[in-house]
Amino acid sequence: MFAQAIARIDGDPHEGDEVRVLDPRGNFLGRGFYSPKSAIPVRILSRDASDALTGEFFAHRLRDAATWRRSLLGLPGADTDGFRLVHAEGDGLPGLIVDQYADVLAVQFLTIGMKRRAPEILEALVAATGAASIVEVASARHQKLEGFEVREGLVAGRPIERLTFRERNFEFDLPAPGATGAAGQKTGYYFDQRETRAVSEQLAAGRTVLDLYSYAGGFGLACARGGAKHVISVDSSALAIDCGVQAANRAGVSERVEWIRGDARRVMNQFDVDERRFDFVVLDPPKLASTARDLEEARGQYRKINAAAMRLVAPGGLLLSCSCSQAVTGGDFVRTLSISARDVRRDLTVLRWLGQPPDHPVPSAFPEGRYLKCVLARVH
Length: 380
Ligand code: SAH
Hints:
This protein is of the alpha/beta class. The protein folds into three domains: 44 residues, PUA domain (Archaeosine Trna-guanine Transglycosylase, Chain: A, domain 4, Roll), CATH 2.30.130; 121 residues, RNA methyltransferase domain (HRMD) like (Transcription Regulator spoIIAA); 189 residues, Rossmann fold (3-Layer(aba) Sandwich). Helix 1 runs parallel beside helix 3, helix 5 packs parallel to helix 6 and helix 8 runs parallel beside helix 9. The protein is globular, with a radius of gyration of 22 Å. The protein binds S-adenosyl-L-homocysteine (SAH). S-adenosyl-L-homocysteine (SAH) binds next to helix 6 and strand 12.
């Protein structure tokens, strides 16, 4: 419920309080928590008038999230025990994100109301999953918006230093939030590219691959296992590369994966100067637009990095280009790619439209929730 849509506030709700939303005639629309500082002061959690937002309510929603992932998606399963357990609106729990790493959960509170219910939510999470530990992850942007503080680290169960998990039988071992040496660094993994990594694995045989913004090498490792001739993975984070090197060793593909720590744009420019070309280029940059306001600027950046990436694709080769900026729509993104192609005088044919896997679901009334767009294209 956007601020402009609110005509009147009855009573004197404080931030984080449970409030009811009524239409102008006084009919009940739903209930949620009050975030007076946000552009969205109430996110509806329940449309059932008799459903108060108690511990039992959270227990029910969280059990549901765990149950349908298990029965429909086989998560957790033998090959994959790292995945998204709760995806905010998509699981009827706006303001809450939970990632599962085997028996460890990483939780993120995005609204002050959810943050206030942390004790009930943590208890319900342990009950729904049997998790041994829960760590809290900070989201600087939401905290600032909503006005609360987070100290990253353990909030339930036994202390841990590492997140150890499997994704499609790759074994990763990353520092846990709040672990020594991890301060200020991205901890945890990007589960939203699981299916797209699997697609790249299928395409990689016999090809040379450039994996840009690789983090721990999710795409590069998949391509190496898929039979790529040679993979170069590029990221600016030494910690991420360290974890990738370990994972490549465990997967037995390390002799075909080379790592470069550095700025992806500079590496792209240098490769262009050296006239290096690759059969398959993956471009998965961090979020470039947080809000609609940054959109113009973000489009310009996507245009530039995609043009640079296209130059490095051998004739007839493949580009997998991704955008995780929610403010950029799928149509927008492909139009930007077509402009990049024109900039570098290439033709681009889209082969596949990919995106977030089903453990990142989106309510039909909230199509913007489909934040991840991945376009697989032939460059000629
Ligand atoms: N492709 C990855 C996820 C990428 S997330 C995967 O499959 O898991 C974005 C990554 O970009 C992060 O790992 C971050 O460290 C890296 N990054 C941010 N700015 C960068 C830059 N200028 N050059 C290279 N890497 C950068």
